[in-house]
UniProtKB/TrEMBL annotation:
One Pfam family this sequence matches: CheW
InterPro entries in alphabetical order: CheW (IPR039315), CheW-like_dom_sf (IPR036061), CheW-lke_dom (IPR002545)
Species, as recorded: Parachitinimonas caeni
Name this polypeptide is given: Chemotaxis protein CheW
Domain CheW-like, residue spans: 24-168
Length: 182
């Protein structure tokens, strides 16, 4: 009988371990305005040094411009301004993180400016708390959750909300209309 229990117990442990691996996600962590943020690594295409950003007239303040990435025009978003903060001050560790988002069934590359990229972390699903309903300095729909890492919290961003091309295109149109009416 103990043999049946131990076999069943071992199978249960194996299933639990498999579930934990399935619940484990990798996140790229970065700093922005002194706070720690994270994005699911599956959205990250590459990280490049800041530079070569061409400003585009009549764009909202969160659109810093565009870059030429191997022949493709990639819009660059200042994540700090997108969150309603001051523009990112360009420094030695400032990077552009190239992120892939889906728009009308197609993948689109968008660059986001961050103060510094830190590391890739494995954060188990059970270590991500729901987003707070209040008290955050950014819109709650931008936050997927609060990841607990080494006794501190990392704000896990919902890439599809933060970089919603539908919402940003409406903001661009509104901004252009406002400039043309002035």
């Amino acid at each position: 009988m103990s043999r049946v229990i131990s076999k069943s117990s071992r199978e249960m442990q194996e299933r639990n371990a498999a579930q934990e691996l399935q619940d484990l996600h990798q996140y790229l962590t970065f700093t922005l305005g002194g706070e720690a943020f994270a994005m699911d690594i599956l959205h990250i295409k590459e990280i490049i040094e800041y530079g070569g950003v061409t400003e585009v007239p009549l764009m909202p303040s969160f659109v810093r411009g565009v870059i030429n990435l191997r022949g493709a025009v990639v819009p660059v978003i200042d994540l700090s301004v997108r969150f309603g903060r001051q523009p990112t001050q360009i420094a030695k560790r400032t990077c552009i993180v190239i992120i892939e988002v889906s728009f009308n069934g197609e993948m689109q590359d968008i660059g986001v400016i961050v103060d510094a990229v830190n590391e890739v972390l494995d954060i188990p699903g059970q270590d991500i708390e729901p987003a707070p309903a209040f008290g955050s300095k950014i819109r709650s729909e931008f936050i997927l959750g609060m990841g607990k890492v080494n006794q501190r919290f990392v704000i896990v961003l919902d890439v599809n909300q933060v970089l919603s091309l539908e919402e940003m295109s409406v903001l661009v149109e509104t901004d252009v209309s406002r400039h043309l009416d002035a």
